[in-house]
């Protein structure tokens, strides 16, 4: 399926279908659906099935497991943006009596609270939610395994706590909050807490024989915020575009960008994989992907988003194990990015209202010691400071209302850049978090910390 305005080349579509067909065959999946979104909507979808003439499509529901966690994180960030809680708030402040209330909201979102990965027995994904009706049943007697804030340790109970936090602060069920605050505004009509036809059935495929066994589909109860949802490739494409661009009806572009920043150390053994506020962050050759994987008995799912390319890849299958949906979703993004890379926006001059002569005078080369940097103007009176050669720290800065700029990324994120003037009003230097940038390297009379040698520059 393609959108006329964003139709892919037939050769690209063939490559995408080939990747899905390989995944279904090699992964021994009863069915497999893949989809790609770009430019505001889904531009391709394809599927394969073991039943001739009965392939699913992008509107067929699959269970998406832990991709549910991203939806829960969105609800929590909405509460933060409304001023109803802070990311550094301890859980106890809003949800007392859990026994793990010292963990902060941010630690729970980023899996650095030190909580156990799973609930006490029996296996929560394959048993009714009524088996563990309340938080104490989810946490058990020893819920904390690691010091909080020190390491990444994925925790399903942690997201159960976040779902209960949403309910406590909102005064409504997690399901109702999700439906009214996220699903309806984004038009995700086929994302639900229970299956709605047409939907796939979950299967276990025997590891050593080509036979199958139906898997149970349980209501997870209080664990729902960690993995309950069913969705479609089409809905997840729309959700992926939201994670790339934001939507002021749900979360601003600035907040979804905040979700994409890793908040703790990477998982042991995988330095390329980090975790933000509810999102996995994969630093791979050629760029960064954000998204999440998911699995429940009978289903595996993956969604990856390349924000720079504006691409979303989704892969869904109805087998407990075998299909590498996360790998396939990333491959779908890669195939389109390589075959049909995003065209850069045309260069345009700044709007006349944004041209400021005083700001224009600050452009050009600056020196921190002997390191050379260039300063250029960005949109809305922002600036960019980047090394002109060799190693150095590049950063973008946003203009502050009272003057100066604040760093947006890299080493200087959150640091203040300001212009320091001489008594006559001329520019003396730039101050960036106490680092002094001058127009010349170690020019006598400039504001160089520690001064300069009286003999000046010299040869041997």
Automatic annotation (TrEMBL):
Tagged with keyword Hydrolase: yes
GO MF annotation: an example: hydrolase activity
The keyword Hydrolase appears for this protein: yes
Chain ranges of the Beta-lactamase-related domain: 22-337
InterPro entries reported in the protein's UniProt record: AmpC-like, Beta-lactam-related, Beta-lactam/transpept-like, DUF7586
Keywords, sorted A to Z: Hydrolase
Coiled-coil intervals, chain numbering: none
Pfam family, one: DUF7586
Residue ranges annotated for the DUF7586 domain, each copy included: 355-439
PANTHER family (UniProt xref): D-ALANYL-D-ALANINE CARBOXYPEPTIDASE (PTHR46825:SF7), D-ALANYL-D-ALANINE-CARBOXYPEPTIDASE/ENDOPEPTIDASE AMPH (PTHR46825)
Record protein name field: Serine hydrolase
Organism of provenance: Streptomyces filamentosus
Taxonomic classification: Bacteria, Bacillati, Actinomycetota, Actinomycetes, Kitasatosporales
